[in-house]
From TrEMBL:
Function recorded in the entry: Component of the dark-operative protochlorophyllide reductase (DPOR) that uses Mg-ATP and reduced ferredoxin to reduce ring D of protochlorophyllide (Pchlide) to form chlorophyllide a (Chlide). This reaction is light-independent. The NB-protein (BchN-BchB) is the catalytic component of the complex.
EC number: 1.3.7.7
Catalysed reaction equations from the record: chlorophyllide a + oxidized 2[4Fe-4S]-[ferredoxin] + 2 ADP + 2 phosphate = protochlorophyllide a + reduced 2[4Fe-4S]-[ferredoxin] + 2 ATP + 2 H2O
Primary gene name: bchN
The organism of origin for this protein: Mameliella alba
Protein name per the record: Light-independent protochlorophyllide reductase subunit N
Amino acid sequence: MSAPASATGCRDVPVLAERGQHEVFCGLTGIIWLHRKIQDAFFLVVGSRTCAHLLQSAAGVMIFAEPRFGTAILEETDLAGLADAQEELEREVDRLLSRRPDIRQLFLVGSCPSEVIKLDLSRAAERLSARHAPKVRVLNYSGSGIETTFTEGEDACLAAMVPALPETDRRQLILVGALPDVVEDQALDLLSKLGIEDVAVLPARHADSGLAIGPNTVFALTQPFLGGTLAALERRGARHIPAPFPFGEEGTTAWLTAVAREFGVDQAHFDAVTAAPRARAARAVAQAAEGLRDRSVFFFPDSQLEIPLARFLTRECGMRAIEVGAPYIHRAVVGPELDLLDRGPQLAEGQDVERQLDRCRDARPDLTVCGLGLANPLEAEGLATKWAIELVFTPVHFYEQAGDLAGLFSRPLRRRAALRLEAA
Ligand code: SF4
């Protein structure tokens, strides 16, 4: 069960640090997948009309259901009005909770308008929690676009849940990260076949899942953007299992290897459980990655999935990475990925968007992975692009999704080739 660390890995290569203008969605975006995952939660965004529009347009599909998120819109107000705003917010929450007995967890989500920043949402959450306990837990976090990238919304949400978890001495594993239910079930099934039974998930689907934490808890991240949650879990005495992320056949095997080692699973049993899904994943990747081999890829910093994806695309799909930009490079989280990523690409942390666009135009990559705001202009300049946000909305983790993950990158290249053919 050895993860093949490359002597030529990128852990120690110099990183281009950029601190300029950046182009990303804000952390409110995470609500769109979190409200599906945490089935008895309500997300109340305390924000402006812009925040309401973002949520409505990004999550328009919700109109047919009893919504589980909303926006308390704060109009411009003077400082004297703030005390009223604080009280009004708490009254609004009381009304919401009396109308909706299905809500068991309520998140007050902060945003970036200055009026909201002046409100003390943590005090509001504490007071409301005391009022509505034990039936409803009220927590708060920030989804502000001032200092976050869009995936940090999930990180802030999960980190906010950790201090409220009950204590346990149980020897257990927690999988950390919001995965689609079907993918989460596949992961739990694989772990169970390996003989690892005491497994919990953060975020749990329901408040009464029994999720608890303590000094005998170990945890494995399934998403690379959870640095704040990692720190919060460690503060509760849990221990992180560092591992590459379960993207592709190799990443999934390396992630499972790290967990299996922690629980003393023997090699023969590990091989017996993983052989068939590994072979399926390798076949699916090989098929879907046709057309990716020897093509070049350039990552703009956006989802924080960039480094694991660069590892997957270069090692399993035969691509060549030119630049791998990430909003943050958190070595405790992506260190094992950097060990596997062959030297060659420029690593960049943070963003100075104009400079990065210049580098991208000079390099003329075959595929550019970037946010929505950059994709259209780059497409107009003749570059094929992949929207980074799709990678968070699509099931891409573990063996059974490995082929789909490769397919997400080969599709834009096939589409561009088809358009060229038609135009010819
Ligand atoms: Fe609201 Fe700020 Fe996000 Fe805009 S960037 S939607 S104002 S939180």
